[in-house]
Amino acid sequence: MVFLKLGFLLCISGIFFSCEMHAEVQRVQTAPVEHWQQASARGQAVVWTREVPGTSIKELKLEAIIDAPIEQVWRTLTQVEHYTKFLPYMDEIKVVKQEGVNRAYVYHRVNPPLVSQRDYTLLVVNEVDTEKGRYYRYWTQRNQYGPKPIKGIVRLVVCDGSWSLTAREDGRTQATYWLYTDPAGSIPAWFANTVNTSGLYDILWAIEARAQDLSWQ
Fold first, then answer.
1. Exposed, middle or buried, 46 (CB in 10 Å: 0-12/13-18/19+)?
2. Residues 8/199, Cβ–Cβ less than 8 Å
3. Which residue intervals of 54-166 are DSSP H helices?
4. 160-169 confidence digits (pLDDT tens)
5. Do the strands 173-181 and 134-141 form a parallel or antiparallel pair, or are they unpaired?
6. Global pTM?
């Protein structure tokens, strides 16, 4: 269960999503709002789910207000070298290839209790419009750019998703976190769906706490 709560921060896939083509990578976006059903709400956050044809795993979306300025939230998300310091079970993360300022291939390895380690390599793309106060970060699985599969570690192959941030007039951040992920291995779909939904809040709160901490920024 704890693995699933962590892994979905970065490893998420939308099999049926609207997109724009950006060279060799698709710009992933959440589905229209009318396709979603509210699953739960806690404080300033709401989780939505959507059935995805052809698979038993549900697509998920979290909408929330983060009590931190957008610049601090963005810094938390983009400085991946710090993930091991505030995300539990994240054992390793490294940039294996950088393409300009806003594109990078990033390898991740998580080591949760009770289940095998998981790893994956993502192409991560950033889009920033500071004048409009909008920040967008999306990723897709590109395991061919990372290390070869390691014996005993489950390689994830379904990994796409996005963070969308907008600055609010009150100084806080409006965030949308979209994801669809298959944890692979022998984890049943019903269990993955249940924990996916509840685990989004843990991810949100970890990011919010890190963004509020000015000691590292």
1. middle
2. yes
3. 70-78, 83-86
4. 889 999 999 9
5. unpaired
6. 0.81
